[in-house]
Amino acid sequence: MRRIPRTALSPLLKRLKIYFDVLKRTTSGYLYVVDLQNKVAMTSPNIVRDFGIPAETMGFSAFRQAWQEIMHPTERESATKVFDDVLQGHTREGCVEFRARTRKGEYEWIECRCAAALDHEGERTLYAGIFRLMGQRIRADAVTGLLNKYRLEQRMKAALDEARETGRGGALMILGIDNFKIVNEAYNRAFGDQVLREVAKRIKKILSTDFRLYKLDGDEFGIVYPGADEADVETLYRSIQTALLKPQQINEHKYFCTVSGGTVFFPQFGKDYLVLHKYAEAALTLAKQGGKNKNCIFSKELYNRWLRSLTAREDIRRSVEDGCRGFSLCFQPQVGADSRRIIGAEALLRWQNSKGRMVAPMEFIPLLEESQLMIPVGKWIADTAVRICREWQKIVPDFCMSINLSYVQLRDPSFKEAVRECIERYGVDPASIVLELTEHTVISDWDFINRQFASLREYGLKIAMDDFGTGCSSLAMFKNLSCDIVKIDRVFVKQILWSDFDRRIVDYTVELCHSMGMKVCIEGVETQEEYDLLAKTCKVDSIQGYLFGRPETKEGFEEKFLMRQEAHGEEQLCHARAMR
Question: Which residues form the PAS domain (predicted)?
């Protein structure tokens, strides 16, 4: 490309060229300066040498086109917007990171800072910039191509500096893929890498050019949101949820994933990046413990909960090592929809910590799953529940015991054998034991779970799908999985008396299940009106809810439900004999 003759330079640029020549010999950075009045650009020789820009002095249009050609397509739009904002007067200066193709044909991450100079009339006369190669610690993540955690740290430090100067804060959001460890275990690391790339691609697509997505350790991503309030963060998170709604097609597998979020606002909760990162991680942990697929906003109260969870983790470990000390089971009755008779119960795990406080299941069960302690505790649950089931079958011969099953247990090779040993030890019919797995766990790994279900059903156990309707792939469940019972979540019961939509959903679900040979249990029934509609109109098979009883201890369940039913049965028998 033809060089611009020296006579084409403006008087101002001629004077500045002297300083430019000195500066480019004394810095290792890459420099450029543009005379905006005459549309002429100068670059330092190392730009020509390392990136193949045609000449040190050239027309601005050619300079701009040359840069456009070597920018990575992924970052081209966002980087160009930053440059244009400076050129068009939207801002005095800008900073952007992007990948540029070197003369060797490789892409390198660079950081570019640019600014415009004004004359005495306020017109932009000069546009200049300096960029540098980003070191190993702040290069892109090898799997996703995103900038990594070191660059997030730098970005946050810059945002905190700005907050100190201007008072304008923002939010740090950390996202984590739910159940990602299961992905690597169920498939392999290469499959997990594909999931990471697809998640990164979908989230990046919905972010505006003002945002950058960062890849952190493991399955986590970071976003800095300057000037955000809670409403802004909630809108962003909902957009991310929507972007991930469609299942991923990876090889021959369809995989559905969700992400949880933890968000902290700065500078009100901290002026140091490491502190803010810790707070965001704490919020993310609690979002996952609270059911996943949600965003948790940091607060001091929330942080104290997180600290308690750390203490609880160790307390739980000691409890398990001490023979599951502090653990107990409560039982909620399940009744026949037509007869209103007790036909079974759901065994619900409870835990009393070393200080004597009853800890909420939503707090301790995620800790059991994350630490793999659910495996020994699950075996204790199975043994206890099967033993009690045998006792209660002496009163109600066809009594069935429902036991909640964690995905962690399902992946344990010894689980099936442990259940089989319990059943044989206590002489219980396998068909009277129902294993419940929640829908949101199932939809992430159809193939594996279907194989496990088939194996358990082959032994005679029954399988129930719990919390049906709360996941994002309920209809797909019918196609991909084979189970015996579907438990419809209370979310469809709460408004069923006045919501024609909810009633129709329940009607159609019951009809579909019955046509496929599955029974239906409705959870969360609390009023007589709800019962009448569900039993008589929707024709469900069984019902569970506060209308018939809250979870009770073994002794409480026997006294409130079994003894009463036994007495009622004896009354009926005496009445029948008297009528003969």
Answer: 15-90
